[in-house]
């Protein structure tokens, strides 16, 4: 993460809150909760386009989507997550980022076969933290694909290095963790227990904000999602938000509410906000008609239910359970 970003965008004024250790105001709503939009998908966005339109699209279409999404959604989001491959330069060059929206830059290099899932990650050497701050970024984000296997310690060290780099650069650290079953295991895999174990491990590194999958991937009774979220709240012992990957779009709103009742402080989500607005024609109109109202509804939910980040950062939530069952209730 020490390399210079080639052909970098013109500098943008840094958010006045950026650089204060542990102060998440730059990413939050006035309520202290998070309604953040992810647009950092790379090859997976090409796959979403193929699923939605039946067409293989080129890099230009991905860039155009990111600009359109930022222009439509950033006025209503507390922060937006962008990648440097297709998103950052076009969004800033076009002036598509609303001035009141926090900027998070993805700092992960993804291991991903075309059309397949992300199987591993590392730090992206082409992302310069100091340059990102000059562009106006308040935070960097790192994705960790967590497995209890022989590479577990390497991934932990990667997250540790990332957080150290963020602190040295005056940027907030957002650590996103998705849990996956080990390739070789002799026992039944328990996703929910693995998610709690991963959160405990990452909590020892003290990221500024933790990003986790919705318990049961949103496909359970809200009370079970709430209990699973309580377990994550205890494990993280700090502010955390949910992502939307793996959650059926129609379930995400209820899943966010249940997770927030269990201690989450909001969401940082992409697919559940904009995936069904993707089209080859009329993208801007569809984002305005479909995605903006959905984001507004989700924002109202987190304002009403979620735990402000400063409360989450002050002390672990009380009454959280230590573990949850893996089966559907």
Description of the structure:
It is a single chain. Residues 3-20 and 315-329 have low confidence and may be disordered. With 329 residues, the chain is an alpha/beta fold. It has a single domain (25-178, 189-314), classed as Alpha-Beta Barrel (TIM Barrel). The strands form two sheets. Strands 9-8-7-6-3-2-1-10 form an eight-stranded parallel beta sheet. It has a two-stranded antiparallel ribbon with strand order 4-5. The protein contains eleven helices and ten strands. The N and C termini lie far apart (43 Å). It has helices spanning 43-53, 59-73, 88-93, 129-134, 152-169, 191-203, 222-236, 252-261, 271-274, 283-305, 309-314; strands spanning 34-38, 79-82, 102-106, 108-112, 118-123, 139-146, 172-179, 209-212, 240-242, 266-269.
List keywords for this structure.
two-stranded antiparallel sheet, disordered C terminus, 329 residues, alpha/beta, single chain, TIM Barrel
Shape annotation:
globular
**Beta-strand residue fraction:** 15-25%
Whole-number mean pLDDT:
90
Radius of gyration: 18 Å
Q: Percentage of helical residues?
A: 25-40%
**Gross CATH architecture:** Alpha-Beta Barrel
Question: Taking strands numbered 1, 2, ... along the chain, how are they ordered across the largest sheet?
Answer: 9-8-7-6-3-2-1-10
Task: Summarize the main sheet.
Answer: 8 strands, parallel
How many structural domains does the protein architecture include?
A: 1
**Class derived from helix and strand content:** alpha/beta
CATH superfamily placement: Aldolase class I
Count the strands?
Answer: 10
The level 1 CATH classification is: Alpha Beta
CATH fold name, please?
TIM Barrel
List the total number of helices. 11
């Amino acid at each position: 993460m020490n390399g210079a970003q080639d052909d970098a965008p013109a500098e943008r004024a840094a958010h006045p809150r950026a650089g204060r250790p542990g102060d998440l105001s730059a990413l939050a709503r006035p309520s202290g909760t998070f309604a953040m939009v992810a647009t950092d998908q790379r090859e997976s966005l090409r796959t979403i386009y193929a699923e939605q339109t039946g067409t293989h699209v080129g890099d230009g279409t991905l860039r155009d989507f990111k600009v359109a999404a930022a222009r439509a959604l950033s006025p209503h989001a507390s922060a937006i997550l962008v990648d440097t491959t297709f998103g950052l330069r076009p969004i800033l060059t076009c002036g598509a980022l609303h001035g009141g929206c926090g900027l998070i830059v993805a700092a992960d290099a993804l291991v991903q076969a075309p059309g397949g899932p992300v199987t591993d990650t590392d730090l992206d050497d082409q992302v310069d933290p100091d340059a990102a701050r000059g562009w106006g970024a308040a935070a960097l984000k790192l994705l960790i694909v967590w497995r209890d296997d022989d590479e577990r310690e390497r991934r932990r060290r990667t997250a540790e290095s990332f957080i150290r780099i963020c602190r040295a650069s005056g940027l907030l650290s957002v650590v996103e963790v998705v849990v996956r079953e080990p390739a070789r295991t002799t026992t039944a895999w328990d996703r929910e227990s693995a998610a709690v174990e991963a959160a405990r491990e990452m909590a020892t590194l003290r990221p500024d904000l933790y990003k986790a999958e919705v318990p049961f991937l949103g496909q359970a009774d809200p009370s079970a999602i709430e209990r699973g979220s309580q377990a994550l709240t205890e494990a993280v012992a700090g502010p955390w938000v949910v992502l939307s990957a793996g959650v059926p779009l129609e379930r995400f709103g209820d899943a966010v509410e249940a997770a927030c009742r269990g201690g989450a402080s909001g969401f940082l989500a992409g697919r559940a906000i904009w995936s069904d607005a993707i089209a080859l024609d009329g993208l801007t109109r569809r984002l305005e008609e479909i995605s903006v109202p959905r984001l507004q509804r989700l924002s109202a939910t987190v304002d009403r239910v979620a735990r402000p980040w400063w409360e989450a950062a002050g002390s672990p939530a009380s009454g959280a359970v230590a573990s949850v069952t893996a089966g559907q209730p």
